[in-house]
């Protein structure tokens, strides 16, 4: 891990540099596990999968109708065929056929070997065993070729990939019942602060409920994570050190909130220095400036600031990409849109800001954003009501209402 030097106390690392540093430092875990397909949603595919079969395995009908050989149809008015049986999905028609004969067929049924055309039932007339085609009947329609979706030995899903429901259905169609995925990450998180009280206890003067652990538990919810809530640690350097050392032995990543700044009870950075290595601390971002990133033994460490909205922002911008990298997932990128902003935005020079906004779409499809409310980093209600970040570059000094801004809708990634 490279140690980054800060020539003076105001030298804050940029968001881009910090992200680069995280991606450079963290190496993908190599351990794999083989799991059953139904357990694989959202897991990271470790080995590419090729199809053991053609999909569909045989020629099948795409519509309910009648299967016949186009060359059998004479120029009658209307052309007629003799019905000799039925091909059901799962029950092929295997009997021999004579010229001029056809078979009733249903969607998904194997097309009998003699047939090269299926005509839909809406287009024909049936009288007993006689099927009459319209004069404008068309040959070679409504048949899906074997392998028309995927050919045998073709790559189905290429690794690495976070598996979607679409991938699982494709793998299932090929009969793939077990796949190789990256193992889950062991992640421990805790809050620090003497003022914090867990849910279910009354508040004394000066105390607040610990909300960060519930935010983090929600943000960390992912099938690739095995998450442990390590509770609240008081502002005591010795207790913090014990927690760091113990948690680092049991997890791939630990995440703390609070105590990351410069107050007399903020021990996170110095404890990290004592137990491990600090890669960087303090970023040109708002909210989220006092973020500490480093390593304790083999365990990665993210010391997030205490303010809840700073936790939200630093998780999305740094922890999430770090976990994706460690888990072996392809890096995702927040979807960015340029939209009109209906609120004036204030901004002080120097830090990249992630303001909380509400993005709306008008009836004619135009996207417009407005500020969700006041922007102090303790204001959880505004964060709860927002649906996007309004991203403002470090150099920006704010905008007037009506100007264009960059927004990142929550949960929209490329
Ligand atoms: N003199 C300076 N003061 C501060 C600076 C600075 O650069 N110089 N930075 C400010 C910034 S920016 C932030 S962000 C905060 C972060 O400080 P800490 O990481 O040390 O966090 P705390 O002081 O422990 O807490 C800040 C704030 O958040 C509340 N908090 C903490 N944990 C939780 C929790 N689990 N659930 C809910 N709320 C929590 C805590 O009570 C404080 O109000 O420092 C600024 N100060
Ligand atoms: O930047 Mo702090 O992160 O104000 O909340």
UniProtKB/TrEMBL annotation:
Q: What is its EC number?
A: 2.10.1.1
| Chain ranges of the MoaB/Mog domain | 188-325
> Which top-level group of life is the source organism from?
Bacteria
UniProt keywords (A-Z) are: Magnesium, Metal-binding, Molybdenum, Molybdenum cofactor biosynthesis, Transferase
| The reaction(s) this protein catalyses | adenylyl-molybdopterin + molybdate = Mo-molybdopterin + AMP + H(+)
Query: What pathway or pathways are given for this protein in its record?
Result: Cofactor biosynthesis; molybdopterin biosynthesis
Look up keyword Transferase and say if it applies.
yes
Q: Which family does it belong to?
A: Belongs to the MoeA family.
Protein name as it appears in the record: Molybdopterin molybdenumtransferase
The protein's organism comes out as: Methylomonas albis
């Amino acid at each position: 891990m490279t140690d980054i030097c800060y020539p003076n106390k105001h030298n804050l690392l940029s968001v881009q540099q910090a992200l680069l540093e995280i991606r450079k430092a963290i190496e993908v875990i190599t351990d794999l596990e083989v799991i059953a397909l139904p357990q694989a949603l959202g897991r990271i595919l470790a080995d590419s999968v090729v199809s053991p079969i053609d999909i569909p395995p045989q020629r099948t009908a795409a519509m309910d109708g009648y299967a016949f050989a186009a060359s059998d149809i004479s120029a009658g008015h209307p052309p007629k065929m003799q019905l000799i049986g039925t091909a059901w999905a799962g029950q092929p028609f295997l009997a021999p056929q004579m010229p001029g004969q056809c078979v009733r067929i249903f969607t998904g049924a194997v097309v009998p070997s003699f047939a090269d055309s299926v005509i839909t039932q809406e287009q024909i007339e049936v009288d007993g065993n006689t099927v009459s085609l319209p004069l404008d009947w068309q040959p070679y329609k409504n048949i899906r070729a074997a392998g028309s979706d995927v050919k045998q030995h073709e790559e189905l899903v290429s690794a690495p990939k976070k598996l979607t429901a679409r991938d699982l259905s494709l793998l299932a169609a090929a009969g793939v019942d077990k796949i190789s995925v990256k193992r889950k990450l062991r992640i421990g998180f805790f809050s620090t602060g003497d003022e914090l009280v867990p849910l279910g206890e009354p508040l004394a003067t000066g105390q607040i409920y610990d909300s960060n652990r519930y935010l983090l538990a929600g943000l960390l919810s992912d099938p690739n994570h095995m998450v442990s809530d390590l509770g609240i640690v008081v502002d005591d350097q010795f207790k913090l050190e014990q927690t760091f050392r113990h948690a680092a032995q049991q997890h791939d990543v630990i995440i703390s909130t609070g105590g990351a700044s410069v107050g007399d009870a903020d021990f996170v950075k110095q404890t990290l220095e004592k137990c491990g290595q600090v890669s960087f601390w303090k970023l040109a971002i708002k909210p989220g400036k006092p973020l500490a990133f480093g390593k304790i033994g083999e365990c990665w460490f993210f010391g997030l600031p205490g303010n809840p909205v700073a936790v939200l922002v630093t998780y999305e911008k740094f922890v999430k990409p770090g976990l994706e990298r460690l888990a072996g997932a392809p890096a995702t990128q927040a979807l960015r849109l340029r939209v009109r902003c209906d609120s004036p935005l204030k901004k002080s020079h120097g830090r990249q800001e992630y303001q909380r906004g509400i993005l709306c779409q008008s009836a004619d499809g135009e996207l417009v954003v407005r500020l969700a409310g006041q922007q102090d980093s303790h204001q959880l209600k505004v964060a709860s009501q927002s649906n996007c970040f309004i991203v403002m570059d470090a150099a920006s000094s704010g905008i007037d209402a009506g100007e264009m801004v960059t927004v990142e809708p929550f949960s929209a990634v490329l």
